[in-house]
Amino acid sequence: MVQNPDVLGMIMGGVVSLVSAIFGSCISCMLCSNCYFIMAGVTTKELVRKKWNEDNPFNLGCLKNYKEFCCHSTGPSIFQLKAASTTVCHSLFPHANTCTY
Question: pTM of the prediction?
Fold first, then answer.
């Protein structure tokens, strides 16, 4: 005897496939647009506001723009903590000399 397939399982599989396709399409569109932004050497804000009426002065060409994006040095962070000025005291033994400088 041949059993009928589980209808609920088929419906759930279809829904999961549809949602996956929608999210996959959105992520693919965002990936493609960001690749274009890197290639053109612009940010989203510059593209939307049409800041560069003529040539973009930061556009180095497709390959150099990708190299600049992937391999450039960001420089030192302004949020780096200085280890010499940080004091840590352990609260388990408040009267003991357990502070680290």
Answer: 0.55
Neighbours of 41 (CB within 10 A): 20
In eight-state DSSP terms, residue 89 is -
Cβ–Cβ < 8 Å for 71, 61: no
Burial state string for 53-89 with b = 16 or more CB within 10 A and e = fewer than 16? eeeeeeeeeeeebeeeeeeeeeeeeeeeeeeeeeeee
Distance from C-alpha of 10 to C-alpha of 20, rounded to nearest angstrom: 15
Q: What's the CA gap between 7 and 52, in Å, rounded?
A: 56
Dmax of the chain from CA atoms?
82
Residue identified by tokens 């190299």 is: 67
Encoded tokens for 24: 């996959």
Q: Which residue do the tokens 């990936």 mark? A: 31
Residues of the chain with confidence (pLDDT) below 50: 1-2, 84-85, 99, 101
